[in-house]
């Protein structure tokens, strides 16, 4: 194992280091000082700071092309309002019943989206569907929150390989004091669910 390979392994397993090298925002000499004990331990021999700096510099040159630009281009940005965010317990009974809600939403051209985790279901629906949802008497409803907006962002396929691409959008929203309530995604689309009163702050953000 060489110094270069050891440094590369350390960087590849550390998102912050990878992001910093890609965007040329790190002091390589300082990073080398911090990495030196780990490199020495892995190689079981003394290693100079200069050799680590050289390895970092080579990696940085290779990684810059994958850096996230200061401003990403997006293919489409749509805001949908008058939504409700619902959280409930995940169970076979609940999943079967919300399929009826999905069918109704599709037939009536109403917004409907669902996310599942290990123990919970998150429903994002048009507010006009809330009464219908409540009529199903589902088990384990955690909360129903109205006045939600969906920020729907379609990104170019070439951005999918950018390390930190997802973080780029999250940072832009949080830096503008927008509270992200829920996130969902598909292959080239991201959806951030936020309070409607924060929408005016993001209209020209992307």
What does this structure look like?
The chain is an alpha+beta fold. Helix content is 39%, strand content 26%. It contains seven helices and six strands, in the order ααααβαββαβαββ. It has a six-stranded antiparallel sheet, with helices on one face. The longest helix is centred in the first third of the chain and has 16 residues, at 28-43. The radius of gyration is 23 Å and the shape is elongated. The relative contact order is 0.14. The mean pLDDT is 89.
Q: What characteristics describe this protein?
A:
206 residues; alpha+beta; 39% helix
Shape: elongated
Largest sheet: 6 strands, antiparallel
What is the chain-wise order of helices and strands? HHHHEHEEHEHEE
Low-confidence stretches: none
Number of helices: 7
Could you give the count of β-strands?
Answer: 6
Return the structural class.
Answer: alpha+beta
How much strand content do the residues show?
A: 25-35%
Strand arrangement within the widest β-sheet reads: 2-3-1-4-6-5
Terminal CA distance: 45 Å
Give the SSE map.
Elements: H1 3-12, H2 15-22, H3 28-43, H4 49-63, E1 76-89, H5 92-107, E2 112-116, E3 120-126, H6 130-135, E4 141-154, H7 165-174, E5 180-185, E6 189-195
Antiparallel strand pairs: 1-3, 1-4, 2-3, 4-6, 5-6
How would you sum up this structure in a few lines?
The chain has helices at residues 3-12, 15-22, 28-43, 49-63, 92-107, 130-135, 165-174, and strands at 76-89, 112-116, 120-126, 141-154, 180-185, 189-195. It is an alpha+beta fold and 206 residues long.
